[in-house]
Design goal:
The protein has a single domain, classed as P-loop containing nucleotide triphosphate hydrolases (Rossmann fold), CATH 3.40.50.300. Helices cover 31% and strands 27% of the residues. It has a seven-stranded mixed β-sheet with strand order 1-3-4-2-5-6-7, sandwiched between helices. The two termini are 16 Å apart. 30% of the residues are buried.
Length: 196
């Protein structure tokens, strides 16, 4: 379980290397999919990761040191909170440059062992999410994994949840609001990032 977390720093440029060599877990997905809310819920802190109602407002990569406790041992990880994909309120040139430099960061940052792809549970078949999944697969190394997590589960009824689980058998369904699925996700983040 996660027993502690703190903000470390923000990277303003994607060619900066994250200044820590320990295992990293990257959270990525569309704008307003709930990345910051999920990080806050997992870390049991309300305002650790700052969220915005304006898609694409932040272009920073935010780093958090997170302490997991497992079998009485403490393990340190870095949560990497990436900017949302698919925002529309900036120029095309800015968007292309941003995505190019973010692409370089993701490909070169070998300490990332787990990519957590967040998908809004109400919109599971968007082209952007399918493209992101294929994009991650295109450069995934042998010691890196992808975990698909569906957020905002509290917005679905029981039959919608059952259908989603049937269509995406390996995915996790969570709600930062009701805490549904968070404990299971914590354990899975720990297990997969260490290759267990």
């Amino acid at each position: 379980m996660i027993i502690g977390a703190k903000f470390i720093s923000s990277l303003a440029r994607y060619d900066e290397n994250a200044p820590l060599a320990c295992t990293q877990i990257a959270f990525l997905g569309r704008s307003n999919v709930g990345k910051s809310s999920l990080i806050n819920a997992l870390c049991h802190q309300k305002s650790l990761a700052k969220s915005s109602s304006t898609p694409g407002k932040t272009q920073l990569i935010n780093l958090f040191e997170v302490i997991f406790k497992f079998n009485e041992e403490k393990h340190t990880f870095i949560f990497v909170d990436l900017p949302g994909f698919g925002y529309a309120k900036v120029s095309k040139d800015t968007k292309e440059q941003w995505h190019k430099s973010l692409d370089e960061f993701l490909r070169k940052q070998r300490q990332i062992k787990l990519f957590v792809h967040l998908v809004d549970a109400r919109h599971t078949n968007l082209e952007l999410d399918e493209g992101l999944q294929q994009y991650l697969q295109s450069f995934l190394q042998a010691d890196q994994r992808i975990l698909r997590v569906f957020t905002k589960a509290d917005k679905l009824n029981q039959s919608q949840k059952a259908k989603l689980k049937q269509n995406f058998k390996d995915a996790f369904l969570v709600s930062s609001t009701t805490k549904q699925g968070l404990e299971e996700l914590e354990n899975e983040l720990f297990r997969q990032s260490l290759g267990l």
